[in-house]
Specification:
The complex is a heterodimer. Chain A is mostly helical. Chain A has a single domain, classed as MetI-like (MetI-like fold, Orthogonal Bundle). Chain A has helices spanning 2-40, 57-65, 67-98, 104-114, 121-134, 141-166, 169-177, 182-211, 214-219, 227-237, 242-265. Chain B has 14 helices and no strands. The chains are: A mainly alpha, B mainly alpha. The interface between A and B is large, with 99 and 96 residues.
């Protein structure tokens, strides 16, 4: 009887603790996003929470009356698209070479290519800036792209390698022994199998380029300002409510892209 | 089998473009930066270790390094404490709810970190959620200063980097054979004992993988550190920026960057080393 009660207490206390702690964790994950969304629809002039009333005025101010934020957004979009395209090509090619290779040089190279995830990107940005200075090369859109490609490649390399590792090598052998050329095998067997992985990696790379401040801070010229830096300055200087509207728009766009990519590529498989 | 090894040989060359890119835009810049940190003067005429001496013998600089590493370490601890239960919950949920929870983890991860930092500015501000609650409950008569404090930076950085702790933990916890739990229960261990003796040790690889990611990201979280920390709290990333752009002192900025880089990478290497030992412990 005593034993039975002890077991019950053990089970109940464990589930109770887990329930409380996990709810707190989920709340911590979700709440900030919800609060920004609600604040962005305020009718007031400050970031008061809860807002005094609701309106879409700050979204109107953002879309029709803030050319500098819109310009920054299009620059960021352009940059992220170019950097993602280049890094996807480079990383997919490298994944074909490395994913199945157990040799020491291949493992070593894989960790080198993953290193931008660990490196403080500010240090990398400073280094690239010094290199361009040394070469007498002024800052431009291409200098920005160079930095962003470096931080984008690890994501594509990781997901492309993961899906390549799942591809049954017998398929490749069959293709070869049936007389298919290397390019034909790539096009018909490897690429279709890799595509969801590549798309997932490209998506994360794209989002992380859109998000990057540290590299852009050093590598963009005086005239061009990317979106996250623009928003950073707005938040730092004035706490303008347009920053809330811009944040709300970014959250909705991220959610929409996430849902589309889940439908198309099943990205959640690669996240665990 | 033959074709497979032939194929490996053929595909080997596909690594060259990325290798060239990394040599030019990652390795060369970092090497150059290390070189420039060895100039003793701002005009870069004299070589020597003067910048490192200047950094390490100055208590102000040492404090910045210490604060940055402490911030990153506490972010790791907080994200484990809050993230572990979420990852554990994930393994218990039915499939449909797993997908919902995963989206709740992925959405903040993919949202711009400026936006996520901004949400903390809104929550902790003078008219923010916390102060409104405290005022309405009568716990305080005037709004408290919550932003620009040490605790605020720790909380915000931990919350922002938390998804990177949860995802590897979910991977590790999902990989544990459920029969081990059943066996532990059958042998008379309760829930707590099973968790401490079976689940927790087997999830150590995930914990360490998450710790590496959270530590590295928190140490260089420039935006969150500056926006939530305000102007009076300086961390290493902003110090690099300030010395390079505002003071135009490139050798010293390079020194600060090298010191941050080496500190972060050595701690990552240490965690990796622990991970290899614990992997032996788990399987052996």
């Amino acid at each position: 009887m005593v034993n039975h009660t002890r077991k019950r207490i053990d089970r109940l206390s464990f589930h109770w603790m887990l329930g409380v702690a996990a709810s707190l964790g989920v709340l911590m994950l979700v709440l900030p996003t919800v609060i920004v969304m609600v604040t962005s629809f305020t009718s007031g002039y400050s970031l008061k929470f809860p807002p005094p009333g609701y309106s879409t005025r700050w979204y109107e101010a953002l879309f029709f009356d803030s050319p500098e934020i819109i310009d920054a957004f299009f620059l960021s979009l352009h940059l992220a698209l170019v950097a993602t395209a280049i890094s996807t090509l480079l990383a997919t090619a490298a994944a074909l070479a490395l994913a199945r290779n157990r040799a020491v040089w291949a493992r070593l190279m894989d960790s080198v290519f993953m290193s931008p995830l660990m490196l403080p990107s500010l240090a990398l940005g400073l280094g690239i800036l010094m290199l361009f200075n040394l070469m007498g090369q002024g800052l431009s859109f291409s200098t920005l792209v160079a930095g962003h490609v470096a931080i984008c490649t690890p994501y594509v390399l990781r997901t492309a390698s993961a899906s390549y590792a799942q591809l049954d090598p017998v398929m490749l052998d069959c293709s070869h022994s049936l007389g298919a050329s290397g390019w034909f095998t790539f096009k018909r067997i490897e690429l279709p199998a890799l595509l969801p992985g590549i798309a997932t990696g490209a998506f994360i790379a794209f989002m992380s380029s859109l998000d990057n401040v540290a590299l852009s801070l050093f590598l963009s010229d005086a005239r061009s300002e990317v979106l996250p830096i623009r928003l950073w300055h707005i938040i730092e200087d004035s706490l303008d409510v347009r920053a809330a509207a811009a944040s709300g728009a970014l959250i909705l766009a991220t959610l929409l892209l996430l849902l589309i990519m889940e439908r198309l590529a099943g990205i959640s498989r690669y996240m665990k | 089998m033959l074709s497979n090894s032939l194929q490996l040989k053929r595909d080997k060359w596909l690594v060259v473009p990325l290798l060239v890119f990394f040599a030019l835009f990652v390795a060369a810049p970092l090497a150059l930066m290390a070189g420039i940190s060895l100039f003793s003067d701002t005009a870069m005429t004299q070589m020597g270790g003067a910048q490192y001496a200047k950094f390490l013998f100055d208590g102000f600089n040492r404090a910045i390094l210490f604060e940055t590493l402490t911030l990153a370490a506490s972010a790791v601890v907080i994200s484990i404490l809050i993230g572990y239960p979420v990852a554990y919950l994930y393994t218990l949920l039915p499939r449909r709810w797993q997908t919902v929870l995963l989206f709740a983890i992925l959405l903040p991860l993919l949202t711009s970190s400026v936006v996520r930092t901004f949400s903390w500015v809104v929550i902790l501000g003078r008219e923010g959620l916390i102060n409104q609650l405290l005022l309405s409950w009568g716990w305080t008569a005037v709004p408290l200063k919550l932003l620009y404090t040490q605790g605020a930076v720790m909380l915000a950085v931990s919350q922002i980097e938390m998804p990177m702790m949860i995802l590897p933990l979910i991977a590790a916890l999902s990989g544990i054979d459920p029969q081990l739990n059943a066996a532990s229960t059958a042998l008379g261990a309760g829930k707590w004992r099973t968790f401490l003796k079976v689940t927790l040790p087997l999830s150590i690889p995930g914990l360490l993988a998450g710790s590496i990611l959270v530590f590295a990201a928190s140490a260089s979280a420039l935006v969150t550190q500056t926006l939530v920390g305000g102007g009076r709290m300086i961390f290493m990333p902003f110090y690099i920026y300030q010395q390079a752009i505002q003071s135009q002192n490139y050798p010293f900025a390079a020194t600060v960057a090298v010191i941050l880089l080496v500190s972060v990478l050595s701690i990552v290497a240490l965690i990796n080393f622990l991970g290899r030992r614990s992997a032996g412990f788990v399987h052996g």
